[in-house]
Amino acid sequence: MSAQSKVSLPVIKRLPKYYRYLNTLASEGRDKISSSELAKMMGTTASQVRQDFNCFGGFGQQGIGYKVEVLLAEISKLLFGTGELLPTILIGAGRLGTAVSSFISRDTNGYRLLAVFDINPELIGRQMAGVPIHALDDLEPFCAAHKPVVAVLCVPRQSAIDLSDELVRLGIQGFWNFSHYDLSVKYPEVTVENVHLGDSLMSLGYRLRERTEADEAARPR
Questions:
Q1: Which end of the chain is more exposed for a tag (fewer CB within 10 A), N or C?
Q2: CA–CA separation, 118 vs 174, rounded Å?
């Protein structure tokens, strides 16, 4: 088993954040950064930064810090491999699907959007983010011909439940799932990233209210 396969999910989820900050540092011409400086940017501790990087063999030297370009290159390899884009399909050409397909197509994130699928006959034959919109009935022959490995689900919960078995049968190995249905419970062998926008919004509200209450409690009476 490779070292990467043993890495915990919280560490993996921090890698994109490291990547974003290091990209900014590189664009600013920064040569080196210490674990303490990087930790401050990340909102964590220097010890946590070192532990994260040690999961992959470590990228710096004690007392010297990290070379930004080297660290960025190493994390890029972890996130994007050799640079080959993962063939991807998107299900659901509504407003959410429109926004997500645009994001996939314009950002350098390791994916290549092949097609969008929908049940609305008025949308079939149109394009979204530069790729064609197909009828959902064409899903099986399309997958047989183009071998996508990722499916982005921008559909309601029940539609995700109805479609997931077929998508796994057709060779989908990973889901970016916006459906409010936790696919990882049913398919532990498939890689799933469940996106719950409402959870993030509720977390924001909780933190704002906690801060307001703390400020009020600290205010002199």
A1: C
A2: 19
Q: DSSP string of 75-113?
A: HHHHHHTTSPPEEEEEE--SHHHHHHHHHHHHS-SSEEE
How far apart (Å, rounded) are the C-alpha atoms in residues 127 and 123? 8
Tell which residue, 208, 168, 216, has the closest CA to residue 192.
168
pLDDT tens track for 43-99: 999 999 999 999 988 776 656 789 999 999 999 999 998 889 999 999 999 999 999
In the three-class reduction of DSSP (H, G, I as helix; E, B as strand; rest coil), residue 3 is classed as coil
Q: What is the pTM of this model?
A: 0.83
Strands 86-91 vs 131-135: parallel, antiparallel or unpaired: unpaired
Query: Is 116 within 8 Å of 131 (Cβ atoms)?
Result: yes
CA distance 186 to 117: 23
DSSP code at position 84:
P
